[in-house]
């Protein structure tokens, strides 16, 4: 039974981020601002020349180097940051820091070239320095790589390029960072001016590169060595959906939470190189991990053919789509399409009274529906299957519009809302929640976006 809203909903006061997110964001801001201030101090302590263009160029280069180190921290996939901010938020920061690097390094080259240019012009000056000074050629190669990566990362180029091609080009950023650092060591006047400056820059780069090494290499290999993941069962859920059960040693010590995802590599001769991000479709129980995949592409379609006993290399757990960020006693879970997998896991773990809105175009597409129904009965939750096309108009307006959501969940303002589904659906639901006055700190949505 549904009811129609009789009065427009007045927006509730905007909520602040959860304490965990506030702490993580504050930590990143403090780290960045404190280092920017110290870099500026070191620049001034090294002595400022009379050529303003060269000064601007030197300072832009230092800020670009700092941004590179900060970028490494963002892509390190450190558990403390990832569980508080989520990989999609870190990827968003990664994108903006990437463009900051693009423009600071462009300013570094242009200001110094024009500042030192004689009668022959800035291009001739760049060529002269590249042929006469140690480290300049390495810097130019690094600059060219950063420019290419920045251009292909722009939306107009990214949309026209296959993900694999973009990813391969993006990996050259690590080469650029190495070349830029070697340039800084060779000719950086601020780097070499004092023991304090030298120690600072070596320490900063060691911290940034160490973070990547720990988060991207040491932790994944240690976890896989410790837990020895392997396929225990492959269970068809529908004609195009399959669940894979992963067993291993001491899984109760893995620290995974419902709502998180892993990057899964099934170590067969034709799949070992391919990593797929799949959410846990059941809450971790210390005995097994379960993923549920729909045949949306070649990689996920082939999973149904994985043999029992196949070794698995799993990177994770990743994501902030967990009960860690719950602020209210009760919750609303909104799932769409394959986004039902983390929602199903959350329903198993989340506390309080829960309402689940499961959005599908056709009831026959409702994957894991029987499991959701069983969990809902066991927990006293309310499960509502919301069916129809995106253009469906109900008695209360659009299917996922504010009036219909309020009719389905009258106390939505007093609940945390966890949303997982296609981008368009997620955006529509968030907009409706905003119109209903649900505070922003009660809205939790995460997309699988990976910073490289």
TrEMBL record:
<feature type="transmembrane region" description="Helical">
    <location>
        <begin position="56"/>
        <end position="75"/>
    </location>
</feature>
<keyword id="KW-0472">Membrane</keyword>
<feature type="transmembrane region" description="Helical">
    <location>
        <begin position="135"/>
        <end position="157"/>
    </location>
</feature>
<dbReference type="Pfam" id="PF08022">
    <property type="entry name" value="FAD_binding_8"/>
</dbReference>
<keyword id="KW-0479">Metal-binding</keyword>
<feature type="transmembrane region" description="Helical">
    <location>
        <begin position="169"/>
        <end position="187"/>
    </location>
</feature>
<dbReference type="InterPro" id="IPR017938">
    <property type="entry name" value="Riboflavin_synthase-like_b-brl"/>
</dbReference>
<feature type="domain" description="FAD-binding FR-type">
    <location>
        <begin position="224"/>
        <end position="324"/>
    </location>
</feature>
<dbReference type="Pfam" id="PF01794">
    <property type="entry name" value="Ferric_reduct"/>
</dbReference>
<keyword id="KW-0411">Iron-sulfur</keyword>
<dbReference type="InterPro" id="IPR039261">
    <property type="entry name" value="FNR_nucleotide-bd"/>
</dbReference>
<feature type="transmembrane region" description="Helical">
    <location>
        <begin position="96"/>
        <end position="115"/>
    </location>
</feature>
<keyword id="KW-0812">Transmembrane</keyword>
<keyword id="KW-0560">Oxidoreductase</keyword>
<keyword id="KW-0274">FAD</keyword>
<dbReference type="InterPro" id="IPR050415">
    <property type="entry name" value="MRET"/>
</dbReference>
<dbReference type="InterPro" id="IPR013112">
    <property type="entry name" value="FAD-bd_8"/>
</dbReference>
<keyword id="KW-0001">2Fe-2S</keyword>
<keyword id="KW-0285">Flavoprotein</keyword>
<dbReference type="InterPro" id="IPR013130">
    <property type="entry name" value="Fe3_Rdtase_TM_dom"/>
</dbReference>
<protein>
    <submittedName>
        <fullName>Ferredoxin reductase family protein</fullName>
    </submittedName>
</protein>
<keyword id="KW-1133">Transmembrane helix</keyword>
<feature type="transmembrane region" description="Helical">
    <location>
        <begin position="26"/>
        <end position="44"/>
    </location>
</feature>
<feature type="transmembrane region" description="Helical">
    <location>
        <begin position="199"/>
        <end position="219"/>
    </location>
</feature>
<keyword id="KW-0408">Iron</keyword>
<dbReference type="InterPro" id="IPR017927">
    <property type="entry name" value="FAD-bd_FR_type"/>
</dbReference>
């Amino acid at each position: 039974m549904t009811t129609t809203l009789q009065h427009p909903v007045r927006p509730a006061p905007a909520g602040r981020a959860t304490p965990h997110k506030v702490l993580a964001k504050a930590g990143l801001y403090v780290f960045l601002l404190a280092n920017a201030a110290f870099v500026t101090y070191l620049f001034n302590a090294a002595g400022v020349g009379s050529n303003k263009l060269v000064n601007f160029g030197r300072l832009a280069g230092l800020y670009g180097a700092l941004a590179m180190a900060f970028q490494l921290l963002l892509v390190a996939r450190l558990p403390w940051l990832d569980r508080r901010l989520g990989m999609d938020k870190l990827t968003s920061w990664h994108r903006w820091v990437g463009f900051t690097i693009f423009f600071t390094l462009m300013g570094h080259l242009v200001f110094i070239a024009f500042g030192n240019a004689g009668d022959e012009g800035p291009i001739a000056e760049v060529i002269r320095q590249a042929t006469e000074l140690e480290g300049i050629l390495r810097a130019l190669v690094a600059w060219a790589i950063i420019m290419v990566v920045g251009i292909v990362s722009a939306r107009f180029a990214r949309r026209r390029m296959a993900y694999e091609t973009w990813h391969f080009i993006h990996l050259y950023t690590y080469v650029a960072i190495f070349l830029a650092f070697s340039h800084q060591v060779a000719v950086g006047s601020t780097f070499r001016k004092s023991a304090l400056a030298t120690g600072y820059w070596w320490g900063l780069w060691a911290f940034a590169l160490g973070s990547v090494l720990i988060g991207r290499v040491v932790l994944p290999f240690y976890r896989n060595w410790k837990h020895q993941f392997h396929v225990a069962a492959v269970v068809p859920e529908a004609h195009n959906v399959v669940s894979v059960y992963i067993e291993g040693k001491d899984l109760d010590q893995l620290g995974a939470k419902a709502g998180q995802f892993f990057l899964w590599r099934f170590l067969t001769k034709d799949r070992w190189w391919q990593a797929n991000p799949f959410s846990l479709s059941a809450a971790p129980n210390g005995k097994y991990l379960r993923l549920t995949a729909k045949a949306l592409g070649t990689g996920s379609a082939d999973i149904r053919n994985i043999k029992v006993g196949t070794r698995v290399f799993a990177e994770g757990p990743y994501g902030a789509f967990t009960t860690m960020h719950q602020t209210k006693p009760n919750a609303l879970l909104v799932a769409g399409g394959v986004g039902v997998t983390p929602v199903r896991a959350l329903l198993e773990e989340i506390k309080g009274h829960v309402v689940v809105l499961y959005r599908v175009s056709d009831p026959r597409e409702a994957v894991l529906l029987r499991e959701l129904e069983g969990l809902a009965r066991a927990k006293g939750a309310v499960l509502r299957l919301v069916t129809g096309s995106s253009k469906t108009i109900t008695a209360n307006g659009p299917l996922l519009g504010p009036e219909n959501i309020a009719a389905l969940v009258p106390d939505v303002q007093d609940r945390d809302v966890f949303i997982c589904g296609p981008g368009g659906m997620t955006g529509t639901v968030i907009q409706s929640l905003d119109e209903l006055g649900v505070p922003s700190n009660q809205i939790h949505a995460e997309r699988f976006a990976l910073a490289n």
